Amino acid sequence: MNDSAAGASSPQDELAARPLSFAADLLRGKVVCVSGGGSGIGRATAWLAARLGATVMVFGRSAEKLQGVVDAMRARDLDAHCEAIDIRDRARVDEVLTRIWSRLGRIDLLVNSAGGQFPQAAIDYSEKGWNAVINTNLTGTWNMMQLAAIRWRDAGLPGSIVNVVVVPQGLHGVAHTCAARAGVIALSQSVSVEWAPYGIRVNCVAPGSIRSEGWAVYDEKTREKYPLTNPMMKAGVPWDIAEAIVFAGGPTGSFINGEVLTVDGGGQHWGEIWTTGKPEYYARASRAWDQG
């Protein structure tokens, strides 16, 4: 989907017009921070939170993309702000959270949607490629989680974290992000117990095949098959995940803690997702099964 396509509504317009499944004032007076807020799931989550009354802070590495999101929100009288950060840079994360806390006095919900990966056979990963994915998806997420939790603890205020992960089975061709996100799931489940006495809830949302800008890293032939990866025979959209994030992380999820909410159309019970295309070895086995 292209913002500049002639005659087509932009993703921002669509997010502004999507019907709300929650009460319009669900997040009134709340502060919601969203990493990876410049596109895809993060952007959809920021829009939903803002439309539900929250003051929204969007984070990401591209100041230009973030500003575009914020400008579109403000044009519709929504309370949105942005900060360009690399979540791997712990000092920068600390600096930005300090500034937000000083200005707004609180953060109610932290959504960790930032991340990145590339489809490739694991045997061909370079050290640099592996470290880039692990450091962003696991260590960067931890930086955001811990530095927010310290502030909640020290202020004696409750907080909520939702980490965007991946469906933990049937996803092939991105072993690095599977490893990193599995670490995030284990980490979230562990600290959901440790941090509960501080009033901090920690949950994860695991998307299946979601149609967004992130699809561009996969070839067209592979993308065309993604709707076949679940029994509903369709791909989801970022708004589907945004609604799950707000449900789990907001007031509606007040007794949900340490959980992984999978939003994949039933794909985890159905089949497999080959981000690099199914290798002939496995395709041959599938044909033998079908013909047998």
Question: Can you put this structure into words, describing what you see?
Answer:
43% of the residues lie in helices and 14% in strands. With 292 residues, it is of the alpha/beta class. It has one domain: Rossmann fold (3-Layer(aba) Sandwich), CATH 3.40.50.720. α5 (127-155) links the parallel β4 (109-112) and β5 (159-164). The protein is globular, with a radius of gyration of 19 Å. The termini are far apart. Mean pLDDT is 91; it is low at 1-7.
Could you give the topology of this structure?
Elements: H1 11-17, E1 31-35, H2 40-51, E2 55-60, H3 63-74, E3 80-84, H4 90-104, E4 109-112, H5 127-155, E5 159-164, E6 171-172, H6 175-194, E7 200-207, H7 220-225, H8 238-249, E8 260-263, E9 273-274, H9 280-291
Number of helices: 9
What is the CATH topology descriptor?
Answer: Rossmann fold
Gross geometry: globular
Structural class: alpha/beta
CATH class: Alpha Beta
Count up the domains.
1
Low-confidence stretches: 1-7
Distance between the termini: 41 Å
* Strand tally: 9
The percent range for helix content is 40-55%
- Biggest sheet, spatial arrangement of strands: 3-2-1-4-5-7-8
Provide the gyration radius in Å.
Answer: 19 Å
CATH superfamily: NAD(P)-binding Rossmann-like Domain
Largest sheet: 7 strands, parallel
